[in-house]
Structure formats: structure tokens, C-alpha cells
Design goal:
The complex is a heterotrimer of chains A (331), B (288) and C (259). Chain A is mostly helical and 331 residues long. Chain A has 13 helices and four strands. Chain A has a two-stranded antiparallel sheet. Chain C is an alpha/beta fold and 259 residues long. Chain C has a domain of 78 residues. Chain C has nine helices and ten strands. Classes of the chains: A mainly alpha (331), B mainly alpha (288), C alpha/beta (259).
């Protein structure tokens, strides 16, 4: 019963999102595009934090890495081919996840948090300091990758992602696809094992599950999906800089996951929406005047409040309310 | 690199490492005893530096500024513990990460409101402002030596505090077993407040004495906290002596990395950590 | 008698200066219930943890003979390897997945027997063989009627039963049962004792238990541990008559339940 209600609400939300570009202003359409990309990012992290029990504080490394791959392989003034650059970016992220995963998964608990942070920082310095990385100024991507469909007989650039509405719908489709994909994965044998590991890893091992392999697979999958988000973001903004790998970015996405409600994919997506819209509102000079410059103060206080008062996030809050009303109906 | 340049780098590495130790020892103590992972620990370093800047300008004397600053830090530590950290002892690390991340944003914005976003210098006290000539054109500033000396004194003091005093006995008992400590009549709540204030003050003090060398600037806490995490990971969580060794190791590798491989220096520290993790996933000195 | 399926040889486990298990040798045979008794702190649970792989031994060997009569050295092996070899264990402190349903607890346990299933698009509920294994394990311990409750909603005794059902669902050849009856009511205990009897013919069972009546009812072999060492081992009646055992353990307990 509850599941169908949730599905219904999600379907409705999806429909509203789909029609938004036809009614909204360009600025807001682009803002929501960004939000949906961050929702993919947040869902990818939720797979680790909410379902596998691994608190990754360096998740932006994958996001930034994929963006940098796109920036590096894009031709100077023409569009790259999405069919080659996207798989490449994802493969690089998966490889980086494999490499670092073999190290970071040797640790657990608080060590894991610190070590993931440190490895992300290592990547930050790679792009920040070395001539290869493009330095602190970042790299521009002058044209969005094209989706070539020559093999379908459509020549040219049939899906023009330079059009902000087309890009919006593209991001929406991918967000929905990632959601459905993760839903399926989490319901499979593999997903059940991850949830078991989060609940009680020792017991999972006693039952015969090689938990390290599962955690590594989860880490790689999560990193690859974060790479998808990073690729899309680099595409949208036409620019990458070391900040997208930075620890504040990792911190933000973790906040989104917990704000929305971890261990619930739509919660993570909701967290991305609320976080970015809150950020947008707090830094709105028309509303808050000079105080808007210091929006991070209010944001910081909100985060503290969530940590202390709302451990299960907004979805948990909704759960409490719906249960209350149902209890009232019973009474 | 000739001998004197090498000596200068060695002393710089030591000084940087010892400063890192002050920050990291507080981090590792607070984690080892209270089980709190504190991302905002770097902000305390920043607070110390800015306090030194303002108080030195106010009193005209860094020494007085440090004395005042330490007092304020202790009070700030007790206040923060009471207001925020206290509620997180029994909670998952995830929420500790979240809350302390929120605190970073708050501290950073308060810094921006109170002090602005400019870089400020802090004057070295006159009696420490000289240099020791090494060769005709190389000399070493006395103040940097003084920093190393003060840090070593504090490290010794910390050893004495943990090994020889009643408070240290309580710290060790509290770290080993909370229930047992309580059964022994130790007031755990008070102990936690004291340890937290101690940890915060160590970080703030490091910021204060580093201010004349590094100057004070926005986001200075962020750089320190991540390196301090690496120190704690390499040293072994909860081990103060592991932190000392790891901090000096990192101070050296960073300093010499900057001279020998300037473009890759930012990464040497993390490569060192990766190697240690391969070899000993729990750090060099595991708490027993 | 056939060769032992699990053989511990001179096992030692030290924690710092303390020898929790000191030079213990032990054999488990298919078709035999081997009971292990001793006062609290004798090292029984540590021994179980060594045999299951939850703890690595400080020294000594663990040898396992698989169904094809191939020998394996298990010392220092990880618990998941041991479990896949067919060594199942239940925990003294209930260690079930509280947020999952009773059935899902067992289904997950049974799923571990599937050859590496990386099919990530098929719902985990659609594997009939796994479901059957899980149902059987639940029925065996008498929990079939509780199938769809959350494990957290079970009584303490029922959680203990679930603990054993999860172990059974992994289709083990060797069962290491660490105080399976602790916290169970009279009737639940009888169910489990009957179950152990039923399993005995084609399993090797190590039973750690304080309930002496139960021990003497099912065990064909009895080992007594005190302070990390074996002080007696043999036929139950024989061991019971051993004056050393009576003095060290049974004597002051009058054969009753030990706290």
C-alpha cells in the first residue's frame, strides 16, 4: 500500500519535472538541470552510505575525475562524441574506484572516512598543481558532446544538447534511469547482500559471503555513477576546476543524502533538490540583502540542526507524519 | 643541495611536522577517548590564528595575545562541547561528520563576517625576531626554531600529562573502557569536556604560534584538517606517539617534496599514506 | 571410526598475556554430537571463534576434510571461506539481522550457497531453490509460523531459534552451536534438542551448552575445558565420573544449570 503511494508520488513528480521546461524560465530550467545531475550524484553516494554502510567523504573525486576526462579528450573548438567520451569517463572512474577501493576498503569505520577524504584530496592536488591537470584555473569545454545517431540514418546532431530544454530532458531521463537501475540492483541478490553488510558485516561473513568483494563492487558501481553525474555537470557548465573534486563538494553531497534520508534512493534525490534550492534561496540578494553573501552561515546551522534533530532526513520525517495520520485514522 | 640548504629544509620540515603534531594530537585524543571524528578541528586552528592576529593588534604583544588566546580557546572548547559535541557521543560517525561539517561552514562564515576575506600578517615578537647566520648568505630565523622548541616542550608536557597525572590516568581509563571508568568514580562528562577543550586549545595554540610564519588567511583550517587526518591515519587512531612520528614524517616529506618535486609535492603526503595503508591498515601504532 | 571432518590440533589463542585457549586438540566426526562444557571464561566461545575463522589462532592447526575427502588447512582462514566449506556456526549472543523479516534472514543465509550470483537485475525473491532452503530451515526450528515478522519483533527465545535456522540454511556439514538453548523456554529447548538429534546422523556437531540435561541427552562425546585447557575428554558417562571434572566443574554445580 505504502509502496504504491510512494510510486505514485514519484511518478507525479517525474511528470511535473518533464513539463517544467515548457513553462519555466531559462534560468530555472538550467537550475533544475543542475539539481537533477546532483540527484544522480547523491543517489550514487546513497548506494555506499545508505545501503552498504560505507561513509565516503571523498565521493567528489569520481565526479570531478569524469569531468576532467571529458575536458581532456574534448577537441579544442568542436564537440566531442558522447558515445566514446562517456564510456571512457565512466571506465576511468571505475578504474580509479578499483585502485583506491583496494586500499580504502582495507580500513573501516572512522579510518574509512578519513582515508577516502585523503585520496580525493590527492586527486585534487593532481589537477591543481601539475601541468597535466590544468591548474587552479580549470579547463573550459567549449562545446557539449554530441549524440551521433548516424547508424539510425540520422545525420548531423539530432539531439541538440546545446538547447537548454533538450539538455534538461536528457538529464531527467538519465536521473530516472539511474533511479530505476539502482532500484533493480538493490532488489537483486547483490543488493540484498549489501544491505546485509550494512546491518551486520560480521554475520554476513559467517554466512559465507566474501564481503570485501561485494563492498568493492558497490564502491566501483557508486564511483562510476558519480562519474556519470560529473560528466553531465562538466557538460552543462562547459568548465571543470579542481573545486569539483574538493572536499566541500564531497561534504555537500553527503549532506544531500542525509538531509533527504539515507537508505532511500528518492530520499537522496529529494535531498539534492532541497539542498540546492535552499542554497539558491539563502544566497538570493533580493530576499536577504547583504546577508545573502553569508548564506553559508545559515546553511551550516541547517546542517547542524539536521545532524542533531533529523537523523532520518526529510523522508523519515514524512514517514513519521504519515504514520501519525494513519494512527489517528485507526483510533 | 648543499649541507646548509639541507639543514634549513630539515629544520623547516621539523617545525612544520611539530605544528601538525599539535593539531593532530588533539584530533587523535578526542577520537581515542570520546570516539568523535571532528572535521571542524581545522577550524580551531584557524580560530587560533585569527585570535593571535586580533589580540596581538590589540595588546601589541604576541606573548600576551597567546596567553589571552589560550584562555579564550579553553572557554570556547567547553562551550562547544556543551552546546554541540556532547549530543553526538553515542551517535554514528556519519552524524558526527555531518554536524562538524556544518560547524566548518559556520566558523568560516563567522570568520568572513568578523575579519573579512583578506590575508593578514602577524609580527614576530621582537626578542625572537633575529636570525642565526649559517653561511654568508644563508641564515635561519630564530622564531622558527622557537616554534619547534615550544612544540617539543608541549609534546613532553603531553607525555607527562597522560602518563604521570591523575587527569592522564583518567584519560587512559576513559579511553580503555567507559563503563569501567565510571565505576572507578571518574566523572566522564567532566572528563570529556576537559579533553575536548584540551584538544581544541592545542589546535588553536598551533594556529597562534604559526600565524607569524604562515600569516592568517581564509580556509587555512581546511588544509590543516586533511593533513591532520593523514597524520592520524598513519600514526594509528588514538595514539599520541604515533601522531608525533607521523607528523614529523609528513613534515619532512612535504618540505623536501616541495624542494625536489614542486609540482607533485601536494601528492607526496597521500602517497605516503597509501603505502602505510598497504603495509599496516591500522596505522603504525595501533592502540592496545 | 572414520577420519575426523574437523580436527583442531594444539590450538592456542593469546590476547596480550592471557591465553584464552591453550593447546586444545579436538575432533569432530559426522554422525556425532560433541559437547563442550566448562565454566564461564573457560575459552569455549574463543575456541568456536577459532574454528569458525572469526579469530585467527596464535598457533596450532585446524584441518578440515571436505565432502570429497580432500583435506584443507583452515588455520587463519576467513570466516566466509570456512562457511563456504560447510562450517556453520550460531552465535552465543544473538546475531540476526533485526531490521529484516524472519524469512529474509534465512533467505539471505541460503543465498550464500548459490554459486557467485552477480545477476544484478533479477529480484532476489525469484530463486525458488533458495526460498525452499530458507523455508525448510525455518520449519526445522519451528519458526515457520513467524515467517513474515520482523526479526526485531521476535521474542528472545525465538531470535535464538532464528539464529540456528540461519546456520542451517547455509547447508553446513559441521555445526558449531554456541549455547543454542540459552534464553529459550522449555518447549523451544525441546524443539532444538530434537532437531540436534535429527541432524546428528549426517552432520558433525560441536555443542557448547550449560544445560547439563540437554548435554547428556544428545552428546556422544564430551570435552571439558577450564582456563583455556582441556581437562577431560571422552564418553559422557566416563567424563562425568572423572574426579578432576567433578571437582573443577560438576562438583559444585550438582549437574544443574550453570549461570
Amino acid at each position: 500500500m505504502r509502496l504504491t503511494t510512494t510510486s505514485l508520488v514519484l511518478l507525479l513528480a517525474l511528470l511535473m519535472l518533464a513539463v517544467f521546461p515548457f513553462v519555466g524560465e531559462k534560468y530555472y530550467v538550467q537550475l533544475i538541470s543542475k539539481v537533477m545531475i546532483m540527484a544522480i550524484f547523491a543517489m550514487s553516494l546513497d548506494l555506499l552510505v545508505g545501503y552498504t554502510g560505507l561513509v565516503n567523504l571523498g565521493h567528489a573525486a569520481f565526479f570531478g575525475l569524469a569531468g576532467y576526462v571529458l575536458a581532456k579528450v574534448s577537441p579544442q573548438y568542436e564537440a566531442a562524441n558522447l558515445w566514446t567520451t562517456l564510456p571512457l569517463a565512466l571506465a576511468v572512474c571505475a578504474a580509479f574506484a578499483l585502485l583506491t577501493g583496494l586500499l580504502v576498503l582495507r580500513t573501516s569505520g572512522v579510518y574509512f572516512i578519513m582515508v577516502t577524504l585523503a585520496f580525493a584530496q590527492m586527486l585534487f592536488f593532481l589537477f591543481h598543481d601539475t601541468p597535466f591537470g590544468g591548474g587552479s584555473d580549470g579547463i573550459y569545454i567549449y562545446a557539449k558532446p554530441e549524440i551521433k545517431l548516424d547508424w539510425l540514418g540520422m545525420t548531423g546532431n539530432p539531439i541538440n544538447l546545446e538547447n537548454f530544454k533538450v539538455f534538461y530532458e536528457f538529464a531527467l531521463v538519465l536521473m530516472a534511469a539511474v533511479y530505476l537501475f539502482l532500484r533493480r540492483v538493490l532488489d537483486s541478490n547483490f543488493g540484498r547482500v549489501l544491505i546485509g553488510i550494512k546491518t551486520n558485516e560480521q554475520r554476513m561473513r559467517a554466512l559465507g559471503f566474501p564481503t570485501f568483494h561485494y563492498k568493492l563492487a558497490s564502491y566501483m558501481l557508486s564511483g562510476t555513477l558519480a562519474g556519470l553525474a560529473g560528466y553531465l555537470a562538466a557538460m552543462q557548465f562547459g568548465f571543470v576546476s579542481p573545486e569539483i573534486l574538493g572536499w566541500h563538494h564531497s561534504g555537500s553531497v553527503l549532506v544531500m543524502v542525509i538531509l533527504g534520508g539515507m537508505g532511500s534512493l528518492h530520499g537522496a534525490a529529494l535531498g539534492a533538490f532541497v539542498f540546492i534550492l535552499l542554497q539558491e534561496a539563502l544566497s538570493n540578494q533580493a530576499w536577504f540583502g547583504p546577508a545573502a553573501k553569508h548564506w553559508q552561515l545559515a546553511m551550516g546551522l541547517c546542517i547542524i540542526a539536521v545532524a542533531l534533530l533529523l537523523p532520518r532526513g526529510l523522508v523519515g520525517l514524512a514517514g513519521v507524519f504519515s504514520r501519525k495520520t494513519r494512527n489517528d485514522e485507526d483510533a | 643541495m648543499d649541507f646548509y640548504s639541507f639543514l634549513i629544509q630539515l629544520l623547516n620540515g621539523l617545525q612544520y611536522g611539530l605544528l601538525l603534531f599539535l593539531v593532530a594530537s588533539g584530533l587523535t585524543l578526542v577520537f581515542g577517548i570520546m570516539g568523535i571524528i571532528n572535521l571542524a578541528h581545522g577550524s580551531f586552528y584557524m580560530v587560533g590564528a585569527y585570535l593571535a592576529f586580533s589580540l596581538a593588534a590589540l595588546t601589541g604583544n604576541l606573548l600576551t595575545a597567546v596567553l589571552l588566546g589560550v584562555t579564550l580557546s579553553v572557554l570556547l572548547g567547553m562551550l562547544l562541547e556543551w552546546l554541540f559535541y556532547r549530543h553526538l557521543y553515542a551517535r554514528d560517525h556519519l552524524y558526527q561528520v555531518l554536524m562538524t561539517y556544518g560547524l566548518i561552514l559556520v566558523f568560516e562564515e563567522l570568520r568572513s563576517i568578523l575579519w573579512g576575506d583578506d590575508v593578514h600578517g602577524v609580527a614576530v615578537p621582537v626578542f625572537l625576531s633575529g636570525s642565526i647566520p649559517l653561511t654568508d648568505n644563508l641564515s635561519y630565523p630564530v622564531y622558527r626554531l622557537a616554534i619547534s622548541g615550544i612544540c617539543l616542550l608541549l609534546a613532553g608536557g603531553l607525555y607527562w600529562l597522560i602518563r604521570k597525572t591523575r587527569l592522564g590516568m583518567m584519560i587512559r581509563a576513559g579511553a580503555a573502557n567507559r563503563e569501567m571508568a565510571q565505576a572507578l568514580g571518574i566523572n566522564i562528562e567532566w572528563l570529556y569536556t576537559v579533553v575536548f577543550a584540551l584538544g581544541l586549545t592545542l589546535a588553536a595554540f598551533a594556529g597562534m604560534i604559526a600565524a607569524p610564519v604562515s600569516s592568517v588567511y581564509p580556509n587555512m583550517g581546511g588544509e590543516v584538517i586533511i593533513i591532520s587526518f593523514v597524520v592520524v591515519v598513519i600514526g594509528g587512531i588514538g595514539s599520541v606517539w604515533g601522531a608525533l612520528l607521523a607528523a614529523i614524517l609528513i613534515g619532512m616529506s612535504d618540505t623536501f617534496g616541495k624542494v625536489l618535486l614542486p609540482e607533485y609535492a601536494g601528492m607526496t603526503t597521500y602517497l605516503l599514506m597509501a603505502l602505510v595503508l598497504l603495509w599496516r591498515p591500522e596505522g603504525l601504532f595501533r592502540r592496545t | 571410526m572414520r577420519e575426523a571432518v574437523l580436527r583442531a590440533e594444539n590450538l592456542c589463542k593469546r590476547f596480550g598475556g592471557l591465553a584464552a585457549v591453550n593447546g586444545v586438540s579436538l575432533e569432530l566426526h559426522i554422525g556425532q554430537v560433541h559437547a563442550l562444557i566448562g565454566p564461564n571464561g573457560a575459552g569455549k566461545s574463543t575456541l568456536t571463534n577459532l574454528l569458525s575463522g572469526d579469530l585467527p589462532p596464535t598457533s596450532g592447526g585446524i584441518h578440515y576434510l571436505d565432502a570429497d575427502q580432500v583435506g584443507h588447512d583452515l588455520a587463519g582462514m576467513h570466516p566466509d571461506r570456512n562457511s563456504r566449506f560447510g562450517i556453520g556456526r550460531s552465535y552465543q549472543k544473538t546475531n540476526v539481522f533485526l531490521p529484516f523479516s524472519v524469512f529474509e534472514n534465512c533467505r539471505l543465509a541460503a543465498q550464500s550457497r548459490q554459486p557467485r550470483a552477480w545477476r544484478i537485475f533479477r529480484s532476489a525473491d525469484h530463486y525458488a531453490d533458495v526460498n525452499v532452503m530458507a523455508e525448510r530451515a525455518l520449519a526445522a526450528v519451528g519458526l515457520a509460523g513467524r515467517r513474515d515478522l520482523l526479526a526485531a519483533a521476535l521474542s528472545h527465545g525465538e531470535q535464538r531459534q532464528l539464529e540456528i535456522a540461519m546456520c542451517l540454511a547455509t547447508q553446513p556439514r559441521v555445526l558449531l552451536l554456541d549455547e543454542p538453548l540459552a534464553g529459550m523456554g522449555q518447549q523451544e529447548s525441546q524443539t532444538i534438542i530434537a532437531l540436534i538429534r535429527r541432524l546428528a546422523p549426517d552432520h558433525a556437531i560441536l555443542l557448547i551448552e550449560h544445560d547439563m540435561d540437554a548435554v547428556f541427552a544428545v552428546a556422544q562425546r564430551l570435552t571439558v575445558m577450564v582456563n583455556g585447557e582441556v581437562i577431560a575428554s571422552g564418553e559422557p558417562a566416563e567424563v562425568r565420573a572423572n574426579p578432576l571434572v567433578q571437582q573443577a566443574y560438576l562438583g559444585d554445580e550438582h549437574g544443574g544449570r550453570h549461570g
